Amino acid sequence: MKGLILKDIYTLIKQTRIILLLVIFFSITPGYSGASFAVVYGAMLPITALAYDERCKWNTLAAMMPYSARDMVLSKYLLGYITVGSATLLTVTAQTFIALFRNSDSAANDILSILFVALTGTVVLAVNLPIVFKMGVEKGRYIFMFLIAVFTIAVTAFGSRLGEIILNINISPWGFGICLLLAAVVLNVVSILISVKIFSKKAE
Amino acid sequence: MNAIEVKNLTKKYNDFTLDNISFYLPEGSIMGLVGENGAGKSTTIKLIMNAISRDSGEINVLGCDNQSPGFEKLKNEIGVVLDEAYFPEVITAANVNSIMKHTYSNWDEKAYFDYLNKFSLPKDKVFKDFSRGMKMKLAIAVALSHNPRLLILDEATSGLDPMVRDEILEIFNDFTRDERNSILLSSHIISDLEKICDYIAFIHKGRLMLFEEKDRLLEEYTVIKVSKSDFEALPPEAVKGKKVTNFCVEALVLKHKIPPSLETQHTTLEDIVLFLAKGDGR
Known about the structure:
- By secondary structure, chain A is mainly alpha-helical.
- Chain A has helices at residues 2-15, 17-27, 32-56, 58-62, 69-102, 107-135, 137-169, 173-202.
- Chain A has one domain.
- Chain A has eight helices and no strands.
- In chain A, helix 3 packs parallel to helix 6 (107-135), helix 6 (107-135) runs antiparallel to helix 7 (137-169) and helix 6 packs parallel to helix 8 (173-202).
- Chain B has helices at residues 41-48, 71-74, 93-101, 109-118, 132-144, 162-175, 190-196, 214-220, 228-232, 269-278; strands spanning 2-12, 17-26, 30-34, 56-61, 64-65, 78-81, 150-154, 182-186, 199-204, 207-213, 221-226, 239-244, 249-254, 264-265.
- Chain A binds chain B through residues 2-4, 6-7, 10-11, 14-15, 52-53, 55-58, 60-61, 63-68, 203-204, and chain B through 46, 49, 51-53, 72-73, 75-76, 78, 80, 82, 84-91, 95, 98-105, 126, 152.
């Protein structure tokens, strides 16, 4: 599987330099919101890698190599965790230095927020990858955009009520973080199982 | 031992069926898989590599059922070249080495770079800037650089100029000098197959029309050009295909079933395949 990830990294480094530069730019941008973009861009990179696979029909060749459907699917999730993890690490390091330089108190909150965004990034992966494996990159992107629109409308409509409910639960940020981590882990495991099934079925 | 054994293989699609195909490739031999576009050659190769699932039949590769859990590992010993190289366009031959080093457990880096030198392939030029010949040579270098016992080549020489094709066929011949090594080679270019193959399997519209040793085929079949009346006098079982013109009949016949007095023509594998595919039997 290392070979598959290496292939994606070579391709991404050479073909998506601008996106990688944007990830670095947003990582070192002071404040939580700008830095969050870096992590979200990181979460989108496995989809870009899949688009390049589709373009050169890599899967046709990989099916002849000692790779199982599980390897093929898992490599994209691992790539996602590597890109989200790297963007998060870069962002947290940069924000810590910025906070130290500015002597700011808000660094801890910002870093916690970035970790939340990183977990959200893995949730984005978990939702996005099965759709893309099933529909292909182009259609998968449209469906994902549709889901984002539905999510945004739902948050706009019910967000304040949801906020009230969360406040009433009176959960600490760390408690909320652990819940989000567990949710992200469960969602990713389920997503991987679904993706392997979709990928194997497609090969029939 | 047989390197490949295919028994009663069937795969059904909405618009195409690969129908009950059986053949084997003895170890140390080269088999040519012949057939028109869409005949089922690539489907057969994908089924052999278990890249798609079969509807029925059995496939054994290097002594292993290709649907058994051990087959994934056995792919380390199978080199495959498809009709295109399918590498990402921005990677270089040097990148390919790093990727394959982590793909094949028996990857031979030295052999790979030796092949790159032999084929005059640049190490740092990106794949999209390679010519078709260079791309196929790179794919062949990869297929040969993990000590395979079996090479499977799907139209690997199509679109290459005769000089390059000849060079590559020579490499395939060298590969089978070790009698543990075998090759399954599908190609439109029947003259190439005639040069190097020991066995020929001919697939036409999803059905196996012929599976025979090449030398035996060339011994058994011949083409004759006779008048219509002479043709009518031939035993029906002797005729395997015919082309009728206003003046005569050109026919593919079994040599031992026609009168020895009939004049036969020099017959190539291409003649035999074309008659079987196009010429209506009697």
